Each structure stands twice: as structure tokens, then as C-alpha cells.
Input
Amino acid sequence: MDKLVINGGNTLHGKIDISGAKNAALAIVPAAILTCDVCRIENIPNISDVSIMFRILSELGASVRPIDANTVEIDSRNVQFFTVPYELTKHLRASYYFIGALLGRFGKARVAMPGGCNFGGVRPIDQHVKGFELLGSKVTIEENAIVNAVSDQLIGSAIYLDTVSVGATINIMLAAARAKGLTVIENAAKEPHIVDLANFLNTMGADIRGAGTDVIKIHGVSELHGCTYSIIPDQIEAGTYMVAAAAAGGDVLINNVIPKHLESITAKLVECGVEVEEFDESILIKSDGRPRHCNVKTMPHPGFPTDMQPQIAVLLSIAEGTSIINESVWDSRFRYVEQLTHMGASIKVDGKMAVIQGVEHLKGAPVKADDLRAGAAMVIAGLVASGTTEVENVVYIDRGYEDIVGKLRSVGADIQRVPIVDPDTRVRVS
Ligand code: UD1
Output
């Protein structure tokens, strides 16, 4: 077990290169088993969630060959199993994409109910199940929470999602890519990673149109082939460093991004008085002095992403005036507030709303990451705070940020990763 030790107060200057998108990779890696061929995937982020997806692929019989730090070749010719045990799914929610992918390839999937980031509320999968059933598969939830989906032949269908769900949209796309006939997903999610998955599948020979709008049409094809594909840059990683630069002050070029994907974040930073300059593939953040307050409501894309909510809360906690955050995607996503208040933030939570009374300074404290994005928020808070902040539960941060310490140090942050040692035995805690 490690912790991050941050001595706050440094302004940030320089350039940060953004890695490939976690949430796109988590959909594209399982999609590679839809073909009995080899897919070469580039710009794969080097993060623990992706490593677990590779382990699942290997368990299923695929071979995953690293070409370099961010490129792999996935050979799915020998995939012969269709069961994913809880031992593997417990680590991350996106493991349920193997239901759609295995159904698409074999017409059967047995996948244990997924674990993953727990924001403190329920994370249902009813819309996934509804989609699989409308495609003609029989879905049962067995003892030990195994989802068992079986179909002789998936048949295209009209599927209206009752709620805009990223996961259900992806899972249905995976299953429908090789179904017979036309599938139309209405009220589909529009996130950049949905478009990236559609582009990947189309490069494999699928026929998917409309990704990025709320109606996606999938003409099923009988076979998909191997391909070479490069994953888009990570919207949330980019947004996290944008907010870090805005909160800590300085000037940072966030490089290798698609500025269009960052518009909702850019708009809020500008509202807070931060200078944001857009280039073709990068965004420059310049900030000095205290930000202004603003209100934020999280929404499905193209709204402000819920996965940026804890990070922007840190910026607003040192802003002049009072800000209100409305969380409209998840029932509960304010557990991190308790940690921030240890650092001197003044935040009152009422259900899905947080009222933040900006304070002039945060002060360093021992805190923990409650989940991946809450962990990123604690790191930003540590950069801003006076004194030393120690962030525990770094495993959460490792799930979604490639080399966060190296990237922040390269722009002047005083942050290091150190092992947690038992004070009595002096032995590293594992
Ligand atoms: C994905 C992201 C997660 C992000 C979320 C919203 C990945 C791996 N994770 O999660 O980081 O916070 O999108 O942008 O991409 N819902 C239902 N029934 C369902 C499915 C979802 O009611 O069958 C509800 C959820 O409870 C939630 C809302 O729909 O309130 C959105 O969830 P969804 O878009 O499915 O999120 P995930 O795909 O799990």
C-alpha cells in the first residue's frame, strides 16, 4: 500500500500529455473478442483497470501481447470460454461489457455481477438486461449474482433506454454488432467513448451510425475482422489537470486532447475567471488569484461530466463566494466532502446538492481517496493547500490515472508516492 505525499503551494508551469481514454479502452478491449482475428490497439492508458480487462481476456483464452507501453495486440482466435468469475469482475464495473461482447461472439455469457467504484448509492443494470432481452436473449440472475445470458441467434430490435446510460448503450452496441438485422437504440448516451467504440467496431467491419447522437442504428453483420485502432484522449484526465492548474495557479498546456470534448469544463473554468486558450490538440490554462464562484449541474454528455464533479468542487471550495453543485447523474456522490472539510473546506450537502462557501485557503491533512475521482480531487486539494497532505487509498487513483505523480512533478508539483509503513514493525503495509 502506498500513499501520496503532497507539499502544497507550488504553482504549476509546463506541459502535460494526456493518455488514452480509460472509459473508451474499457469498452474497446472487450470488443476485441467480437472477432476471431487480431486487433492492434494503440494509445491504451497504462492503468490498473485496463490491466484487469487484459486478465479477463487471458482467462477467456485470448492472448494479449504488449507491443510497447501503450500498444497491445489482442488475438481472440482461441477464445473458448464464456464465464467471467467474481474474482475478476469484483475489481471493476466495466467487466460487465463482457456480457455484451460474449453474447455477440458466442450467443452466451456467464458473468458475475460487477464491482467497481461505489459512489455510495445503487448502480442498477436493468437497462442492460432489457437490451439483451429485446435482442432475443434469455437473461437470468443466478445464485452468487451471476448474470447468465443465452441466445440461439440475436435479432436486431428497437430499444428505448428509460434512462441515459453509458454502460447500457455500450453493452447493447457490443451485442448488436453481430446480431441479425437492425437494432435502433433510442435515448442513447452520447459520451465521446460511445463514439470511439462505434468507430472501433466500424473499423472491424461493423455498420453503426449515429453514435454521438441519441439514436444509434446498428445493422448487424455476420463477421468482424481484425484492425488497428488508436484510442481517443481521456476527457476526464484532461479535465482533472485543467482544474488542477486552475486551482493551483500558473500556466499549463494540456496536450493531446480533443478540445470539443472539454467544452463543458472549459465553460465552467471561464465562468470562474480562469484564462483558457484552445488550440487544435491542446488547451492552455492560465490562472492567478482566487477563482470566482459558479454553479455546476452534472448531466450526461454534452453536459458537465459527473466524473469531474469532485475535482471542480475543490476549485469552488477556494473560490470567492458561494457555489452550488447539483449532482443529477448519481443518487449519491458527495462522500469525499468529509475529507475536504478536514482540509478546511466549508461544504454543506443536502441530498443531491452541495452548497460550497468558498474559503481563502485549504490546509494540508491526512485524507483518503473514497473512489477514483474523489482521489483525484484530494490530490488537487493537496496541491492547493498549505502544508503537507497525505492521500491514502492510492489504488483507486491508479485505476484511472497513468503516472499522475510523474505528470504533476513535471509541471512543478511537490508530490511523491511513498510506501505506507507500520510504525511498530517498520514493515511496509500490503
Ligand atoms: C459510466 C462511467 C462512469 C460515469 C458514468 C456517468 C465507465 C466505465 N464508467 O458509468 O465513470 O460516472 O458513466 O457518466 O464508462 N442506470 C440505471 N439502470 C441501468 C444503468 C444505469 O438506472 O441499467 C442509471 C445509474 O444508476 C445512473 C445513470 O443511469 O444514475 C447513469 O449510469 P450509466 O451512464 O450507466 O453509468 P456507467 O456506465 O455505470
Observations:
- Residues 23, 26, 93-94, 123-128, 163, 165-168, 189, 306-307, 329-330 surround uridine-diphosphate-N-acetylglucosamine (CB under 6 Å).
- The longest helix spans residues 235-248.
